[in-house]
Design goal:
- There is one protein chain.
- The chain has 494 residues and is of the alpha/beta class.
- Helices cover 23% and strands 29% of the residues.
- It contains ten helices and 27 strands.
- The longest helix has 16 residues.
- The radius of gyration is 22 Å and the shape is globular.
- It binds alpha-L-arabinofuranose.
- The site of alpha-L-arabinofuranose has 11 residues, from loops.
């Protein structure tokens, strides 16, 4: 039997709810057709925002939303997206699909969306092709409450009060699409640009420096050495790229090898977080600077027949496992990882939600976010997993992964089972518990076949179901966990 022992006698840190953040770029149908359809659309909307999509994200308590990119951020000039719609600049989205960007979704629309969602805005500024003045004035436009040219402009555009801007990224992937810079060069630019991200009101803006691409340890070393005191967070991007990338394999068309390789690549996040944390700790032993994993998730070949520049992909239980494994890693390292954003929110890459015309479906990934919700702002507990290794020689992974937390007398244990067949008996023991288990509940996300997905015709093939729990002592329960599954176990203690 596999076992998970949760140490209940020692509270670790709080798991920041911002680990459960999302990302919306001007890419494909994420913004247009995803969050935004415009006020005149036949699709039910609230002032232009898609009602079904907004509701789906409210249901998972979205804590923050990143915008406008991604690579788009370093080509985005915020003044193009303010003022009367008819006067807004029409341009080509050169990065993503070569389509016309009419700038109808800009600063006001984004901040309005965050208000509707009840989440923190995380805006990514332009270092690659923008000036210090442009970045500085954007921040002034959004956050300055007194009299100034930018606050006057904001008021003329209909927003009297400043907004609260929670997080601001200074450049995106500056080592790649954001300017192809060397670490030392960007570190200097970061120091310069962030100086003019002024804190006008009492609300502090959390400043995020562009961090490494996956295992670029040198980038982290240089940024921390040169600029750590000037940042609140350092970003990290890591995608689980479709392992058998040959244009035949997609999100739904893969075999057992593709299953294990993908999960092995996702599990690599553990190594990334540990090693970047080690490097950061040389300069920041108190872990003041957060590791902000603001782009993560599965990146498949696009669905056949769709625009290759739109990155539209389906999602199966394999993607759900990737999400479950990754979020367990983030929870377990939440002393350092305090913000994360899955890429991307709607219709792009590992999206929790897909839309087609006036229809919307929730992908298996959405359910994982729903199941992991109780971890938000809960207290992390150490959990020790005894499990077997599975998969071919070049892709060995732990069959079971887990994370645990507690909040208001309720303990939550989330676990993933990567076995492809059979089921597993898993015991969960709350060691060092002061009190007794007084109630349990578990929910399960699973599938009989690894490539099943929810479609617009059959939208609930993969959805949360109840799973029975056997109480075997005052501090231990046993679950029969099906293959290919993600589980949420909730235990109440008195
Ligand atoms: O999420 C898609 C793209 O991936 C982003 O625009 C970029 O930052 C990354 O390379």
């Amino acid at each position: 039997m596999d076992s998970i022992v949760v140490s209940c006698d020692r509270d670790l840190n709080k798991i920041s709810r911002d680990i459960y953040g999302h990302f919306s770029e001007h890419l494909g149908r994420c913004i247009y057709g995803g969050f935004w359809v415009g006020k005149d659309s036949d699709i039910p909307n609230i002032n232009g925002y898609r009602k079904d999509v907004v509701e789906a994200f409210k249901e998972i308590d979205i804590p923050n939303l990143r915008w406008p990119g991604g690579c788009f951020a370093d080509e985005y000039h915020w003044r193009d997206g303010i003022g009367p719609y008819e006067k807004r600049k029409r341009m080509i989205n050169t990065h993503w699909g070569g389509v016309v960007e009419d700038n109808s979704f800009g600063t006001h629309e984004f901040l309005g969306l965050c208000e509707l969602l009840g989440c923190k805005p995380y805006i990514n500024g332009n270092v690659g092709s923008g000036t210090v003045q442009e970045m500085s004035e954007w921040v002034e436009y959004m956050t300055f409450g007194g009299e100034s040219p930018m606050s006057k402009l904001r008021q003329e555009n209909g927003h009297k009060e400043p907004w609260k801007l929670d997080m601001f990224g200074v450049g995106n992937e500056s080592w790649g699409c954001g300017g192809n810079m060397k670490a030392e060069h960007y570190a200097n630019l970061y120091r310069q640009y962030q100086t003019y991200v002024r804190q006008y009101g009492a609300d502090k803006i959390f400043k995020i420096a562009c961090g490494p691409n996956s295992s670029d340890w040198n980038w982290t070393e240089v940024l921390m050495r040169e600029a750590a005191p000037l940042m609140d967070g350092l970003s990290l991007h890591h995608y689980t790229i479709e392992p058998d990338w040959d244009n035949k394999h997609t999100a739904t068309n893969f075999d057992e090898k593709g299953w294990y390789l993908a999960l092995r690549n996702a599990s690599y996040m553990e190594t990334l977080v540990r090693r970047h944390d080690e490097i950061m700790s040389k300069y920041d032993p108190d872990k003041r600077v957060a590791l902000v994993v603001d782009e993560w998730g599965m990146w498949h070949a696009v669905e056949p027949g769709t625009n290759p520049g739109f990155l539209y992909q389906q999602s199966t239980i394999r993607d759900a496992l990737v999400a479950g494994i990754t979020l367990n890693i983030f929870n377990n390292h939440s002393d350092r990882v305090r913000v994360a954003n899955i890429a991307q929110a709607v219709n792009v890459l590992q999206a929790p939600v897909l839309t087609e015309g006036n229809r919307m479906i929730k992908t298996p990934t959405w359910y994982v976010f729903h199941m992991y919700k109780p971890h938000m702002d809960a207290t992390l507990l150490a959990s020790r997993v005894a499990t077997n290794q599975i998969g071919p020689e070049n892709a060995r992974i732990d069959a079971v992964t887990s994370s645990a937390s507690h909040k208001n007398g309720t303990y939550t244990v989330t676990l993933t089972n990567a076995e492809l067949s059979g089921s597993k008996e898993v015991s969960v023991r709350l060691a060092g518990l002061s009190g007794k288990i007084c109630g349990t509940k578990a929910s399960l996300l699973s599938s009989d076949q690894m490539n099943t997905c929810n479609t617009f015709e059959a939208s609930d093939k993969i959805c949360e179901k109840e799973l029975s729990v056997r109480l075997i002592s005052s501090d231990e329960v046993v679950l029969t966990v099906p293959a290919m599954s993600v589980v949420n176990l909730t235990i109440c203690v008195k």
